[in-house]
Amino acid sequence: MEKIIDESKQGESLVLENKKENTRKLFIESYGCAMNFSDSEIVASILSNEGFNTTNKLEDADLVLVNTCSIRDKAEQTVRKRLEKYNAVKKTNPKMKVGVLGCMAERLKSKFLEEEKIVDLVVGPDAYKDLPNLLAEVEDGRDAINVILSKEETYGDISPVRLNSNGVTAFVSITRGCDNMCTFCVVPFTRGRERSRDPQSILEEVNDLWSKGYKEITLLGQNVDSYLWYGGGLKKDFDKATDMQKATATNFAKLLEMCAEAQPKMRIRFSTSNPQDMTLDVVETMAKYDNICKYIHLPVQSGSDRILKEMNRQHTREEYIELINNIKRILPDCTISQDMITGFPTETEEDHQDTLSLMREVKYAFGYMFAYSERPGTLAERKMEDDVPLEVKKRRLQEVIDLQLEHSYEKTQSFIGKTVEILIEKEARKGDKDWSGRNSQNLLCVFPKEHYKVGDYVNVKITSATKTTLIGEPVGYSENN
Ligand code: SAH
Ligand code: F3S
Fold first, then answer.
1. Which of 89, 396, 420, 450 sees the fewest Cβ atoms within 10 Å?
2. Is the pTM of this model over 0.70?
3. How far is the CA of 132 from the centre of ligand 1 (A)?
């Protein structure tokens, strides 16, 4: 199951192919969303030109970087704990330098240097190209910081080094930042304004990945449906573009089509969609191309109109249901997943019941569910009181999770007896006799290895299923192979 925040990957240190001439050692660890993991690949690529090879041994590192997440308080606490660990190691290796990257760097800025004495370097998500200069300052014995957010930076010109890759699936970043201003969310403050990457550089990356043996890409952005390229510039300035720019602009549906046609055997996924920005031309494009996976992550956060309004989600429950019904009509096979927040300020039992009833109406295949965590600087923090007691948030969260698990089970059970195409990604568990991969609908599937190998497209007959996993027997290569 593809996770927005993949718990199994949190804190994974990243290692890439080493350059012989490089003598310095970089330990880089990532927390949070897929975008952070993707950014760490960009950072590693920039630093490999500065003489750094990656290591997964913290004790050996000359430079330790942690790419951080601010989405909930818990994410920040996890990073604080890691900094304590680095501090302990630094005592035995005083030359080791420590840098904080990502959303916490952006949110806390120079406070980090004051609060956490061991931190030498603070770099926000749009300033990674400045790393070589910042490192030079650190080497001269000064603390260094760059948290300037950019209106243009997309790192489109940097080819990311694939870290700890399975060689089969990869993320391709297409937009950065978010303009939606959901009142609970810190992302617009930590990642800045929304901007799109040049489609040519995206296509080049997709083609390059195919030539290196990759079989599946996920187009990545905080709000992919909002993708818009008209020669550069912010989405919000599109009105000011010339007629020519407007006529030749590329929107998300067009970008999807370009990727699907460029590599007809490459599976294409995307994440994340936003209900207010997703248009039916995207759904129709998905229907037109077999290689675009039939899966949409469509966070809704709440089933209550009143709460949606307080969250500034810019769509009603009815509009969301209408979109879902259109998806089900155009793509009957498509699975849909959700993000939900329980205990947003002022949420009543009735609002919570609305969330449960929305879930019953949609029947999501799976979801990512969270108790509301107040984030400093957001509109909700400034204007609303965090008034739902923690026990109530947690009890509602449990009810939402329990209902989701029922629906997930119904979904996985519905595949029993069917034959589905799976792209093999890795061993189910290290040293296991089973392969693990996903079907087009993004459901996890395990089956005996037999003679198949990682990267093969295999038809698998599903014989049983748990709440989250399909279990089957391979029946042969699929025609995609
Ligand atoms: N558009 C983004 C959303 C990022 S945040 C994307 O690419 O996925 C991922 C999810 O975290 C949100 O959909 C929301 O459900 C949850 N979240 C965000 N802020 C939160 C908060 N303050 N408290 C609890 N959950 C939150
Ligand atoms: Fe956050 Fe809403 Fe954007 S959840 S990332 S502000 S769409």
1. 450
2. yes
3. 32
